[in-house]
Amino acid sequence: MVKKTFPYLLLSLLFMLPFLMGGICDGGGNGGGTTPTVAAVNLSVKWPSGFSNVNCTSRLIWNFTPGTLTGTSGTSTPFAVDHNYSSTSDSYGVCYFSDLITNMKVGTWTIAVTDGAWVTSCVQTLAAGTNNLKFTIGRAGCTTGLNPYPGG
After folding, report:
1. Do residues 118 and 65 touch, judged by C-beta distance below 8 A?
2. Which of 80, 81, 107, 150 is the least crowded, having the fewest Cβ atoms under 10 Å away?
3. Is residue 16 within 8 Å of residue 107, measured between CB atoms?
4. By CB neighbour count within 10 A (0-12 exposed, 13-18 middle, 19+ buried), where does 115 fall?
5. How far apart are CA 40 and CA 104, in angstroms?
6. Does 35 score more than 60 pLDDT?
């Protein structure tokens, strides 16, 4: 009886160890210890190329304009990020371009993106820790979290 249950007990302990040490659910995935005080935003743009396994490139310009900010630290002035992206389309003929912007003051921001021909923006309240915004080239607005990209 002991020989049969020991592996399961050991596996259960190994699974619970990170939770017991506080390294997984610490409020922001920052390695444990402290709660984040600034916002970060993980930006993702979906670009339907129409062909699988092709190289996609795009120059995207992101503009960040603060609204009502409630945080005590982090960037609180307007700024822009101009970046060239490259990725390979997936089997559905879709490319994804991603960026992570950190050290933003918590609160409401207007985030706009353009590739020169297309432009869209959305107003989003950024919480402390990592926030996720998704855009689709050719579509208006953005979605958050685990929601699908604008336009499906």
Report:
1. no
2. 80
3. no
4. middle
5. 6
6. yes
- Write the pLDDT tens digit of every residue in 45-70: 999 999 999 999 999 999 999 999 99
What are the strands of the beta sheet with 94-104, ordered from one edge? 94-104, 39-48, 129-136, 143-144
Query: Which amino acid would we find at residue 1?
Result: M
The DSSP 8-state label assigned to residue 60 in this structure reads E
Model confidence pTM above 0.90: no
Output the CA–CA distances (angstroms, integers) from residue 98 to 60, 77, 81, 117, 140, in the order listed: 10, 22, 12, 19, 18
Give CA–CA dist 100/132, Å, rounded.
9
Question: Over 90: is that where the pLDDT of 15 sits?
Answer: no
Tell me: the pLDDT tens digits for 121-139?
Answer: 999 999 999 999 999 999 9
- Return the number of other C-beta atoms located less than 10 Å from residue 127's C-beta: 15
What does the alpha-carbon distance between residue 63 and residue 109 come to, in Å, rounded to a whole number? 10
Helix or strand holding residue 143 (H, E):
strand 143-144
What is the chain's length? 152
